Amino acid sequence: MTDSKYFTTTKKGEIFELKAELNSDKKEKKKEAVKKVIASMTVGKDVSALFPDVVNCMQTDNLELKKLVYLYLMNYAKSQPDMAIMAVNTFVKDCEDPNPLIRALAVRTMGCIRVDKITEYLCEPLRKCLKDEDPYVRKTAAVCVAKLHDINAQLVEDQGFLDTLKDLISDSNPMVVANAVAALSEIAESHPNSNLLDLNPQTINKLLTALNECTEWGQIFILDCLANYTPRDDRESQSICERVTPRLSHANSAVVLSAVKVLMKFMEMLPKDLDYYGTLLKKLAPPLVTLLSAEPELQYVALRNINLIVQRRPEILKHEMKVFFVKYNDPIYVKLEKLDIMIRLASQANIAQVLAELKEYATEVDVDFVRKAVRAIGRCAIKVEQSAERCVSTLLDLIQTKVNYVVQEAIVVIKDIFRKYPNKYESVIATLCENLDSLDEPEARAAMIWIVGEYAERIDNADELLESFLEGFHDESTQVQLQLLTAIVKLFLKKPTETQELVQQVLSLATQDSDNPDLRDRGYIYWRLLSTDPVAAKEVVLAEKPLISEETDLIEPTLLEELICHIGTLASVYHKPPSAFVEGSRGVQHKRLPGSAGSGESADSPDTGSAAGVSEAPPAVIPSQGDLLGDLLNLDLTPPTTSGPPPAPSSGMQMGAMDLLGGGLDSLMGDESEPPPVPQRTDTPQSPQLSHQSPSPPDYSPTELGGDLGGSPAMGAGFGAPPTAMPASFPPPVSGGLDDLFDLGGSVGMPMGAYSPPKSIWLPAMKAKGLEISGTFARRAGVIQMEMTLTNKAMSIMTDFAIQFNRNSFGLAPAGPLQVLTPVGPNQSIEVALPLSTVGPVMKMEPLTNLQVAVKNNIDVFYFSSQYPISMLFVEDGKMERQVFLATWKDIPNDNEAQFQIKDCHLNSDAASSKLQGSNVFTIAKRTVEGQDMLYQSMKLTNGIWVLAELRVQAGNPNYTVSLKCRAPEVSQCVFQSYEAMLKN
Amino acid sequence: MYMHVLVLICRNYKGDVDMAEIDHFMPLLMQHEEEGLLCPVLSHGSVHFMWIKHSNLYLVATTNKNSNASLVYSFLYKLVEVFTEYFKELEEESIQDNFVVVYELLDELMDFGFPQTTDSKILQEYITQEGAKLEVAKSKVPTTVTNAVSWRSEGIKYKKNEVFIDVIESINVLVNANGSVMSSDIVGSIKLKTMLSGMPELRLGLNDRVLFALTGRDKGKTVTMEDVKFHQCVRLSRFESDRTISFIPPDGESELMSYRINTHVKPLIWIESIIEKFSHSRVEIMVKAKGQFKKQSVANNVEVRVPVPSDADSPKFKTSTGNAKYVPEKNMVVWTIKSFPGGKEFLMRAHFGLPSVENDELEGKPPITVKFEIPYFTVSGIQVRYMKIIEKSGYQALPWVRYITQSGDYQLRTNV
């Protein structure tokens, strides 16, 4: 007879029957009943009503029955916390049972009962079990500490369990050590600032010893823990590597990957000329290749990681191309990943083979796979110059197949090939044009339009081709619209006589009839450019484009480094930092690779990792968003096959807009040492109309444009009727525009003084039964203080004050109790200063600097929230080395840059610098360019985040510009607010 | 993290993922399957699902942290292994029939998301299907659970002490349509069936080139193993330092080690094929198979599988030896040759009709695959030189060695 019978009783009144059976005197009947209950629970029925009856069965000497009752308890205790208390006695008793299986079972189950009241009773039994003579009980108890910490972290700390857990790392039994390590790592993860896993050479040695003896899973825990350690020097690094390498021969893929992680990380510290370094590189290849014979899911994880590894250290697998050839029966996700790696490993030496394979794949049936294979051919062309010709002819062959998606994909990559080898393969344009009608995907249409615009002068009927797209302009996707706009403008600049009508048409479609701000803005900019200075327009729009880089989808180096530290984990599978997909991990410090040997730089210097990086700096991804110049040059087609997500989410519209006007226009026009033309002209609202009448700029040469542009009445008419919306969206001076945007951005934020803002009322007496609290924050001698005035506006005395903070973005917490020693009488006030630490629990707040506070007195508990100026968190050692600053500035992606304006500030740059220095904003360098002072500044937050700033001060101009760069762009807004407050007070 | 076998059974090891989250799994999976973007990791909000499929069951692990993904998949496969050893078949019924044991196992296998004891032999010592009665003798924790030697119990006794060693090499080959070998490698595996008493210490000697170089010996043929993977019983650091394979073996059957050899091997059975497709009328297939191995050896149970279009009909075959059979559900012809001596060459011709109305669905280009077994022979030339067995009682034990070479992933692409 099997257990399945328990699933079949689904009659009504079942609960009642079960109740009777549970209370039966017969042991067998009881057990049967409990089994039925568990079966019901398993299929999702609510049997919580039987709680007291099931708990009554707990006191049994039948192990199987006991396990079932415990299982029931774990499931329902949370919903019935009061009744769960009934079980406590049995638990405590079971923890002393002579049978270790029962002791372990009890302590394991108790930890799974997430009821606060029970956890208190758990402490004593747990303490005993942690010292139990049987290792099976100890290893179970070790895990239980982590469980308890998850429920009540404070309790675990107060009871000293963490120390006991640390002691277990020296336990004689390897399994106990492994579980203690696992538990500590788990706890440390939720406590980023704690020094829990205080790893030192002694503990490392113990871990390495246990590594040889424990189970495969234990080895993974230990290796993952080792990966967090930073060796003191290359010698230590090497000796750890030597002891970890044998793990590469383990049959369990997860052990191998965790070992690879440790080795990849510690290898950073080894000097490259060391023999051992070469040996280690050689040792890494075979196990990585063997991972490809594991189960498909494990292969997938391995391939995602190999993708990272070949980007970081291409030399490891450069001879292993063949193992990545796709097999017919590989699952699609494995096929796609293999393709990606094949392209990364493609080189002159193996390109012939690779191309033959790719051509084979391009005739398969799986659409996604075929598309990727076609793209891969294009990428090979771009990567290996010698193969370009062969790739192009392969692509043309594929276009001849007329398979719709193959053709489209081929056109997209051919566009990239044109970018890389301009004026080399134009002969194929005719073939491409033949396929114009079959293109129905935006990306392919956009690519084709780009090609037509770019080579307009060679395509006789370019205007017809483009016009045909224009008919359905509003049905096209934004990508195609933008492309069409630019292509027609290019065409116009190349063949102005025949295409005026076309360009007017597209400009009006883009500006008047479109709701899309990007399209409108680009339309206006072209319009303005064409109407004010056609020569400049030509220079800008038809400028020589930077060549496309070899690898267009490399992971940004800092992210890559972080991902290398997460080999084997989900982060390495997603190619995203954990903070992007794990809730509550925002404040957690990003993992970095250790610096290279002998660099002498401290570990927290953000530059060390990249200094040790690959010798040639990987070329940047296609121009960053918000780069107006790039936009105008029309380089914004999606890079080919972006497999990974964009490095970091851009900080939203507001930031992009500011950058567009601030940085974009500056770089567009700033190079000419004359004032930008736009503001000059815009003092007349109808400015575009004036364009053709205004005197030509010095370098204006009408002949170049066929003499038609400058003063032709037709042109005048064309550009002279701007849509009415135009003046509004193009307000006179550029700075005005910025101010407008900036006002949207929230300069009206919180009221705040300078270094220490004046006290404001946080908690009005009305809301707090007569207690009024006003206060401020200050940083005094390196200590953050919360300075408060407590006023008693009630009729009775207030005593017993205490304070607590909610979790907050930077882990602020009271460093001691609130010192209110005397009772506060009616109408009395008392001043208190509460020193704060930054080692409390972290949770990202909105706004970032929000602090939720609870204050208690003899009357009640009151809650309020306040915001602290982020400058409170600037630490005293926030001055960065010049070189490091430079490298870091470059290293941080442009997406993370934020620009702000500070209005009405009347300090000169030196005064500003010294004022900021008082708040730990350090000026590292100063540069004066054409009367404009640029101050380069750095500051460091208590959690180790660096913020880099460039402050531009123009003599006589009360408006400053601050550009902030930070790896955590969320803080920029707060930092800016602090800048404003510091400078103005 | 919690385990979930459909909605059959689940165990929430931590309280951090809501049990209801699993309801999102199936729709999500379906959606991805439809879009052809199947992926072993799926996510819904902040919850990530990592799943594997075993017959008709999905084993799903969920997490909301940055978990070690390779650990999760290894564990899921281990789970399948353990359940299969307990219940023979892992399927819906076996879970329902044994749900009490399943719960017990899930508890022992993992605690709070940390995998614990996953060796089914050891688990069977204290979790049994009859339901453990609380007899003092039986309910002790086997010391093995937490021992450094966690894979072998003490007190094993055999009347006759023997070890059977199987050396099995699988050949993976990928041949291009124009007949060039794209990649080939050998994956070898050494399996043990241990029937030894007590706690024996074993040492295995192979003709490993690195070992020979270390000891300065250079007579006879040696083999270079690219990458070696060992069962957890083998002392890895010992192997790393002096290439000695020393271990205390698990009882019964186990895979001691596996290795990969990258050297270019001649495909043992070479296939030349001409497949001609005349649209709307017929397909003609000619396949020539040649045994490229020693004349004394014989390949057994050779199967050459040739793909045919899914709409082919009225098969006709002619073979110089063996049997050809049309397997319409797999769209292939299977040509079976029971015994295929080295150096010989055989021929098969097949003829199929094609319908005049063509199937417009695109079909892939499946390769020709070959299966075979050649006993008493290893392609790499690997040899077991000795197996030393030392046990403190001093018994005499006999090692038996058997060699076999077989096809692994053996694919030859075709032109059609």
From TrEMBL, chain B:
The superkingdom of the source organism is: Eukaryota
Question: Can you say where in the cell this protein is located?
Answer: Cytoplasmic vesicle, Clathrin-coated vesicle membrane; Golgi apparatus
* Membership in a protein family: Belongs to the adaptor complexes medium subunit family.
The GO annotation for biological process reads: intracellular protein transport; vesicle-mediated transport
- The MHD domain extends over 160-413
Protein's recorded name: AP-1 complex subunit mu-2
What the protein does?
Subunit of clathrin-associated adaptor protein complex 1 that plays a role in protein sorting in the trans-Golgi network (TGN) and endosomes. The AP complexes mediate the recruitment of clathrin to membranes and the recognition of sorting signals within the cytosolic tails of transmembrane cargo molecules.
The Gene Ontology CC terms held by the record are: clathrin adaptor complex; clathrin-coated vesicle membrane; trans-Golgi network
Q: Which Pfam families does its entry note?
A: Adap_comp_sub, Clat_adaptor_s
Q: Which PANTHER family match?
A: AP COMPLEX SUBUNIT MU
The keyword Protein transport is assigned to this record: yes
Per the record, the gene is: AP1M2
According to its UniProt entry, this protein's organism is: Sparus aurata
Keywords linked to the UniProt accession: Cytoplasmic vesicle, Golgi apparatus, Membrane, Phosphoprotein, Protein transport, Transport
Protein's membrane topology: Peripheral membrane protein
